[in-house]
Amino acid sequence: MTTSLETTPPKQPLAFAIRRERLSDIAAREALLDLCFGEDRDGRTCQRLREGRLAADGLAFSATHRRRLVGTVRLWHVLAGGKDALLLGPLAVEPALQSFGIGAALMRHAIEQARLRCFKAIVLLGDAPYYERFGFAAAKAAQLVLPGPFERERLLGLELEDCALDGAWGMIVATGKLTPEARGHRRGRVKRLAATAV
Fold first, then answer.
1. Are 172 and 146 in contact (CB under 8 A)?
2. Which end of the chain is more exposed for a tag (fewer CB within 10 A), N or C?
3. DSSP result, the chain
């Protein structure tokens, strides 16, 4: 789940830093995502792939300006039509600062860090005119589908290794580690099922 950002060139230099996300960023990140996507954002299709999962290790980033969180992006483990990949999103930048290059810097940083960790492909759902500048293309995800409604032209793929998405066909499925809450819920469900089977 992503949004269109910085459709015009940056107005003037703005000092900001990009670093790995910290636990202390969570409240500010969630408030920023609510501001950018609305409080009903949890009902969106890509959220089904993130719900109850942890972001990929070392691939959650925050942009800060004057020690305040002003941007966020995270990547998640998925199988994209049978191919190991990452799902990028949501990408969000504080609305008042969306023309200063923060979103583009977060994107470049996230892609480079994924490449350094030897991931082969990234998929996302977003506006092609914005994400094409980073190498994303609808053709790379043409045979992939999401677990819910989506606009076909907004499902995009990027190969970090040549031909990484060749032959990728079918559903994009979450494969990341479960959150502690989701693990507890799953254990409880298994115990209830086991009890009813006796």
1. yes
2. C
3. -------S--SS----EEEE--GGGHHHHHHHHHHHH-TTGGGSTTHHHHTTBPPPTT-EEEEEETTEEEEEEEEEEEEETTEEEEEE---EE-GGGTTSSHHHHHHHHHHHHHHHTT--EEEEES-HHHHGGGT-BGGGGTTEE-SS---GGGEEEEESSTTTTTT--EEEEE-SPBPHHHHHHHHHHHHHHHHHH-
> The whole model's pTM is what?
0.86
* pLDDT (tens digit per residue) in 138-194: 999 999 999 999 999 999 999 999 999 999 999 999 999 999 999 876 665 545 545
Burial (0-12, 13-18, 19+ Cβ within 10 Å), 28 = middle
CATH of the domain at 83: 3.40.630.30
Residue 6 resides in a domain: no
Domain around 153: 17-197
Question: Residues in the chain, how many?
Answer: 198
